Amino acid sequence: MKSLRFISAEAFVSNAEFARKSFGGVPHNLFPLLFKASYLLEQGEVIHDLVENWPLVDFNMGKLLGATVDYQEDLSNRTCAVCLESCLTGLRDYVLNHPSPYEKRLKVVDLTGIKDVEVQFCECKKTMGRWARTQLLAKLSLELLVYMQQTQCNPGALKISIDVLIDLFVTEWNYELVVQALSKKWYCPLKICCVAFRSDNLALQKFFHIIKLTDPSLLRKLEIVHNVRLEMEHLEILFNTIHFPLLVSLTLPARTFNVQRFTAADERMLTNIGKKMGEMMQLTELSMSFSILTGRLQKLLSPLKSPLKMLDVSNCSLNHADMAYLANSFHANHLEALDLSGHNITDLYPSKFFKLLGHSSSVLRSLTLEDCNIQDTHVNMLILGLSPCQKLQEFKFLGNPLSSQALKHLFTFLCELPMLKTVEFPVPRDCYPIDITYPIDDANLCRFDHRKYESVTEELNRILLQANREDMKVSTPLFGSYDAAVQETNNELGAYLIKSFKETLEKFTTSLDEL
Predict the structure, then answer these.
(1) Same-domain check for residues 323 and 370
(2) Is there a contact between 453 and 485 (Cβ–Cβ < 8 Å)?
(3) Residues of the signal sequence (predicted)?
(4) Domain range holding 317?
(5) 143 with 177: CB under 8 angstroms?
(6) pLDDT at 160 over 60
């Protein structure tokens, strides 16, 4: 619902030429209203001029685009390339614009509220993801420095100092540019302040170099994800040499830990890493998927001072002792998001798992149990465990060998969870050939009866319809959930994989020649 003020703002900015000529007479308090209206209509030139002449102390994208009294729709998930580029170039020109009809008061620009989602509603359909935003801000910062050095810049521009809060995303392809921008940020009016940092496809030496440039004392989220070969000894060096006092969320790459080849020195190293994480007083989100942690979960998590709200230990080969610790730990009562994918929970430690579920049920919002060998005989037990989870908003259980009949039974129950909005369910087992084995490998993932699957999906949707739960979004993403970062950098990721494959072949050929 739009207020009359918002409708008027839309009418004002819809004529870009008229609006741009009229900003000199616009009251300060109307700039946020005009900005959101311009963003909705994708009026790039108007957005640029609004930012260039911004009269307020702060510019917070999340608040500006979020739900407001005048227009309740949240636009922060629209990563429209036209709008975002206009914002950033407008910010550059804010520094250079002299004289301006407004006093330059801007001190903080917060770009962290932008959300990258799969479906875009902007008309241009061209997005600017986190990697591209990182690239453009670094580029504009350096261009601004060069321009100010090469031209007779007005003295007022030299006094401007604006902290630009951003979630940086660095890979091999934009590394050099971002390093230059971070190295020179103290000389630039636009000072890049990294609040969250993600690294993919980056050599370890480069990662260590750039993480020091980000000012780790400000970092709240650190994601080291794909193709960064960080192992336990490197993690210990990272924690011993760099302090992260404000870190809330930590994601480690696959195979960071492997307790199968542990020595006594490795045990001491793991203990030290646990202590270092314990010094991170605000750490409440931890992802360690695809590491081998068998029997060592307590050693890592018990030193933590704050209870975890998010824990991802998918495919970590947890044993009974690990699950017993987790179920009885002080973390259990605070877990809002939990991923235990890749563990045979119903056979190996059902009582401990359901005890954990019971402790977290009052706060649990997201539960992921993919490839957990949940079968038809386990559905009633699963329903019993999920019944107290009345705040559950997201439930993902892809890759489990459930029949279409079991799925219908489960869906009838899921309709009773009042806050559940997202469900990712597996292709029913009876849609696959009889000889299929679980977990299903990628080569056989699509070898199912698509017509039968569509028929089952229609029945499941009818169950939702009869229960008045059209608000629930149900799907079967065969190759996993959408990852905005991977989607944006898939060309680079593909190139990296081809290069790695080529290097492996060359090593293999060399070994054969030596033989």
Answers:
(1) no
(2) no
(3) none
(4) 230-334
(5) no
(6) yes
